[in-house]
Design a protein that fits this description.
This protein has 20 helices and 12 strands. The protein is α/β, with parallel strands linked by helices. Helix 17 crosses helix 20.
Length: 475
């Protein structure tokens, strides 16, 4: 970063052009600024894009290369793959402050003004030209493509200015859109394929010529702006959605992806859920319940009943995790139990937080309701995680208990003490279940019991019936 702006507070920064020159400040394009600051971060082994999980060896190296190449960038990926967060993270590679000619609508570089106002101010005031400072957090702006008009992002002729006698060919006649106002900053357009073709033509012109042309009038600005886009591959690659000339001018395409390891997915889920597990009724979430919650999302992404082109966002896991914790906490408050421990029966509440987040594949030969699809992916997730624990703990032997006619009732509102009473009437083989998550309290043991029962049911070793919120497992 600039030595001048990196360590100084706003009050001590130069306030005139002469003082700015004396400070040693040098003019750089926004892409050069990001390039230099990224190189410093890499050399100092700083963590890039904090809060982004699972991209350290894939997306971030590709993004860093694109930034060093000083490209405009398209982030290509399905929903919930942190595209917007990556774009917003680029703010951290900007200087804390940059100087501009005070009063300039387009934040004119004091050494290289592009507007008539900036040039005339410098010519009139010289080294006494007043300098203002633009903070980092105001140098990034994003826009969602649907509904965006040319005037919103490029600009329009201002009728009020024409009424005062301003010439159509003068820059003073313009009302600037977001991109010109972000001169020396970063502009991001989300969901590029949904952008009107006329606006795409305007963006193509900015990417190609770095100038602004409104209604054909020859008003030109040598804009200094980094432009970012995001898109879903299904729509971006659809013929006619994005004009070829615009595609050709985008410097790099960075492809994002869903977590390639379930542990990364769990880490994202816990980080983004931002729900406290402490308080009057603390919640202890067993690892296997976190694994099931994330595995539900993984199974949804593989399900033949769900539209793969749309994807299944990480927000699906996050919402379900919060719901699972909330269900356990509600039980704890009503029954006076501490701590609250989520159970398999709590997954029944996930329907509320899941409906609407999946797009059912209407072309599938098996027409299921959204609730049936959700129940199917939940069952598949329990089975998958259970298989991992069977291999680790040898839980299959517990199925033999049910061959002797044992019935076990479970439910989201059943007190944990009831599970303890039930276990007194069954063989010691149940102790194997508690190797899953060793704990002596009834709530954790109840969660382990439900996990084993649900896993056996998923393997069709036992049957399950539901009535009035109580689930009965038996042979």
């Amino acid at each position: 970063m600039s030595d001048t702006t990196h360590s100084q507070s706003l009050e001590t920064l130069p306030q005139t052009l002469g003082a700015l020159r004396d400070s040693g400040w040098r003019s750089r394009s926004v892409k050069q600024e990001i390039h230099d600051n990224l190189l410093s971060a890499l050399a100092g082994h700083e963590r890039l894009f904090p809060g982004i999980i699972g991209y350290a060896d894939t997306v971030i190296p590709e993004l860093a290369t694109a930034l060093l190449a000083q490209h405009d960038i398209l982030f290509m990926g399905e929903k919930g793959q942190a595209k917007s967060r990556l774009m917003r993270g680029l703010q951290e590679l900007l200087d804390p402050w940059i100087p501009y000619v005070a009063g300039s609508e387009l934040h004119d570089d004091p050494l290289r003004p592009i507007t008539r106002f900036g040039r005339e101010t410098l010519a009139r005031c010289g080294d006494d030209t007043p300098i203002a400072w633009w903070p980092r957090d105001e140098r990034y702006v994003e826009r969602l493509a649907p509904g965006t008009k040319f005037a919103d992002v490029i600009g329009e002729i201002d009728p009020a200015k024409l009424a005062t006698g301003t010439s159509l060919s003068a820059e003073e006649a313009l009302h600037f859109g977001l991109i010109p106002r972000m001169n020396r900053g970063v502009f991001a357009m989300n969901e590029l394929p949904e952008l009107d073709e006329l606006v795409q033509v305007g963006l193509f012109n900015i990417l190609e010529e770095r100038d602004v042309q409104i209604r054909g009038y020859p008003i030109r600005f040598d804009l200094d702006v980094m432009i970012l886009f995001s898109a879903n591959p299904a729509t971006y690659n659809r013929s006619g959605k994005v004009i070829p000339q615009l595609k050709d001018r985008i410097g790099s395409i960075i492809r994002t992806h869903y977590p390639r390891d379930r542990a990364f997915g769990i880490e994202i889920m816990e980080q983004e859920a931002t729900i406290s597990l402490d308080g009057e009724f603390p919640v202890h979430v067993p690892l296997f319940m976190k694994e099931i919650c994330e595995q539900i999302t993984i199974e949804a992404r593989k399900s033949p009943y769900i539209d793969h082109a749309s994807g299944v966002s990480a927000r699906f896991s996050i919402a379900n995790f919060r719901t699972m914790v909330a269900a356990a906490r509600r039980r704890a408050a009503l029954l006076g139990e501490r701590p609250a421990v989520p159970r398999i029966s709590d997954l029944g509440h996930l329907i509320a937080s899941s409906v609407g987040k999946l797009e059912i594949d209407l072309m599938s030969s098996h027409q299921l309701t959204e609730q049936q699809v959700l129940e199917a992916v939940q069952n598949a997730a329990v089975k998958h995680v259970f298989d991992e624990y069977v291999d680790r703990h040898g839980l299959g032997a517990i199925a033999e208990i049910f061959a002797k006619g044992v019935k076990v009732d479970v439910g989201t509102m059943l007190p944990s003490a009831k599970y303890a009473e039930t276990l007194k009437r069954v063989p010691p083989a149940w102790e194997k279940a508690f190797e899953i998550n060793p704990a002596g309290d009834d709530a954790m043991r109840a969660s382990c019991v439900e996990f084993v029962l649900a896993g056996l049911y998923a393997h069709e070793q036992i049957s399950r019936t539901s009535r009035h919120g109580t689930v009965t497992y038996e042979t």
